[in-house]
Amino acid sequence: MNRIASLQSQFQRAILTLDDEFDDKILATKRVSAKRRIGIYADAYRLRLIECLRDSYSALNTMLGDDQFDRLCRSYIDTHTPHHYSVRWYGQTLAAYVVGTAPYCEHPYLAELATFEWKLMEAFDARDAAPVTIEDMAAIPPDQWPNLTFALHPSLQRLQLAWNVAAMRSATDEDRDPPAPQRGDRLVPWIIWRTQRRQFYRSLSADEARMLDQARSGANFATLCEGLCQSIGEADVALHAAGLLKQWITDGLIIRIVK
Amino acid sequence: MQKSAVKRLPFLGFGLGLRTSHYQSVLAELPANIDWFEILSENYLVAGGKPLYYLDAIREHYPMIMHGVSMSIGGSDPLNWDYLTQLKQLADRVQPAWFSDHLCWTGLDGSNIHDLLPLPYTEEAIAHVANRVRQVQDFMERPMLIENVSSYLTYKDSAMTEWEFLTGIAEHGDCHILLDINNIYVSAFNHEFDPHEYLHYIPVDRVGQFHLAGHTNCGDYIIDSHDHPVIDPVWELYAEAVRRFGPVSIMIERDDHIPPLNELLPELDRARSIAQPILKEVAA
Ligand SMILES: [Fe+2]
Asked: What dihedral do alpha carbons A50, A52, A54, A60 form, nearest 10°?
C-alpha cells in the first residue's frame, strides 16, 4: 500500500471505530489536540448519517422520540458503513436491522413502519412513465377486452400492513400528533405510488388486491375477472373489474394497455 | 512546475445553489437577479420523479452547473466508472458549462464516508490526484473544477501549503479551480494561516468559479456548515478575490436552515453590489 492509501486507511478506521492509532499522524494546534481534530470528522460522519436516516424515516423518528431514534441510528451506523455514492440509499437495510435487534424487535410495528417509509423512498424517485387515460381505455373495442394485459407504474409498491403505520406517517407529514400503535385483526393490503410530482398511498380491498397482484404478474382481463368470481356473482364480475380498472387509471397506476 | 496555458471559463454571473425547498418559488417567480443555478449532482442521479421533473423545468429558464460530492478524486480506490457514467449522462441532460467536485477523498475499500476528507499535501498526492483529474476530465469531455475544502486537521506528512497543493493539482491535472472563499477563511482559522497569502498565490486564469457560504464558529475551530448568512470578513475576502481574479462566476451555498428564496436573494444582491464596482474599476 502506498503512503496515501495507508494514511486514508488509518483515517477511515479512526472515523469508523474511534481507535486512536491515527492520532500520531496528525498535528495539533495551540487550541485543538490531534485527537479532537480527528473527532470533528468522527462526529460529523455520525451526525450526517443520522440526519439522512431522519429524512428517510421521519415517522419512525416521531414514534421513537429523538433520543431513542438517535440511539437506534448510532447502533445501525456502528454496524453499517455506507457504500453507495448517494447517501439516499443509506437507510435501505434499517427495517431488517430493526427486525433483528432488541429492543426494537419487541415492538413489531417499528419494523413495519420502517418498511413502509422505505417503500415511500423507493416510489419517490422511481422511473417516470406517462399513465394511460380513460379515453385510451374507452377506445378499445369490447371484443378485445378478454385478452388485454396491463403495465403498471414503475413506482408502484405493494405491501401488507398489520399496524396503523400509514396513519403514523401521514400525521408526521402533516405535523399532527401520531396515533398510538394499533394492530388490526388481519393484514391489510396497501399500495404506494406516485404520479410525476405527487406521492400517494391507500389500502385495498381483498378483491382489488388480488386483481392488482394478478395484473402485475401479467394476467389478462379474462383471468382477472375469473379471480373476482370467488367473491362476486358471475353476472357482475366484468362490470366490477372494469370499475376497478377505471379507478387504477384515474389513480395514474396504468401506464400501458397491451392488446 | 510545468505550466500549460489555460483558457478562462466564461462569466455566468451571480448564482445560487438549487435547493428542493425553492423549486416551486423559482418556477413561480423566475427571479431575474439569479443568473444561474448550481445543482448537487448526486440529488439527480435517480431514475425519475420530482427531482428530475424540477431539474428539467428550471433548466429551461436558467443555465446550470453540476457540483458533486462523491467523486473521491483524491481517493485510493479505483475511479468509480459507474458513478462517472451516470454523471456524464446527467451532464448530457443538464448541459453545464462545467462540472466540479472537491479536492478530497470520501472513502476507501468501497466505503463512502459522505464527508470531504482532506489529503496530505505532498508531491506524491499531487501526482496521484492530477492523474485522476485528467482521466475524469477526458471522460466527461467538459471542463472540470476542483474545489478547496474546509479542513479540520493537518497531516504530519504534509510538505507544502494548501494553496501550493491546490495549484499543483490544477496545473498538473490541467483543470480549473472552484475557489470557495468561505473555506479559505475557515481553514485559515483552523490552521492558523493567512487567507490573503492563499488568495494571492492561486493562478488567476485557473479560477473558474467562487463559492460563498456561512459557517459555524465553535470557538476553538470553525465548521463549514452552510447554515448561516455569509459573515463580513468573508465578504471582505470576496471583494479582494474579485479584485484579483476579475469576472468569475459566483454562487452562494446554503445547505441547512434554508430560508425562503426571497430571503436569500438580498445576499446575492450583496455579492453583486460588491463585485460590480470592482469589476468596472478593474476593466477601466
Ligand atoms: Fe463550497
From this structure: -100
pLDDT digits (tens, 9 = 90+) for B8-29: 999 999 999 999 999 999 999 9
In a mutational test of the A interface, the residue from B43, B112, B193 whose CB has the highest number of chain A CBs within 10 Å is: B112
Q: Under the phi-then-psi rule, with left for phi > 0, alpha for psi from -120 to 50, and beta for the rest, what region is A18?
A: left
Domain count, chain B: 1
The answer to the question of residue B7 being in a domain is no
Segments making up each domain of chain A, as ranges: 114-259
The Cα A243–Cα A235 span in angstroms is 14
Q: Parallel, antiparallel, or unpaired for β A149-152 and A157-163?
A: unpaired
Query: Which chain A residues in 10-29 lie under 8 Å from chain B, judged by CB atoms?
Result: 11-12, 15-16, 24-27, 29
* A35-92: pLDDT as tens digits: 999 999 999 999 999 999 999 999 999 999 999 999 999 999 999 999 999 999 999 9
Asked if B229 and B267 count as a contact pair (C-beta separation under 8 A), the reply is: yes
CATH number of A114-259: 3.90.930.50
Tell me which residues of chain A, numbers 197 to 226, contact chain B at a CB-CB cutoff of 8 Å: 197
Is residue B206 very low, low, confident or very high in pLDDT (cuts 50, 70, 90)? very high
ipTM: 0.94
B153 with A37: Cβ contact below 8 A: yes
Q: Find the DSSP H helices in chain B.
A: 23-29, 50-59, 81-94, 123-140, 162-173, 181-191, 195-201, 232-245, 261-283
B3 within domain boundaries: no
**Residues 178 through 197 of chain B touching chain A, CB cutoff 8 Å:** 190-192
Alpha-carbon distances, residue A38 vs A20, A97, A101, A152, B103 (angstroms):
9, 28, 30, 50, 18
Classify residue A84 as exposed, middle or buried by CB count within 10 Å of its CB (0-12, 13-18, 19+).
Answer: middle
Whole-Å CA distances, A189 to A29, A124, A223, B33: 60, 20, 20, 50
Domain extent at residue B159: 14-283
Does residue B1 lie in a domain region? no
Chain A partners of B89 at a C-beta cutoff of 8 Å?
none
User: Domain with B173 in it: what CATH number?
Assistant: 3.20.20.150
Cell of A59: 415517522
Is residue B8 in some structural domain? Answer: no
Q: Which residue has the cell 444561474?
A: B36
Which residues neighbour A157 within 8 Å (Cβ) at sequence distance 6 or greater?
A119, A120, A122, A123, A191, A192, A193
Alpha-carbon distance A170 to nearest alpha carbon in chain B (angstroms)? 19
CA distance B148 to B176: 11
pTM across the whole model: 0.94
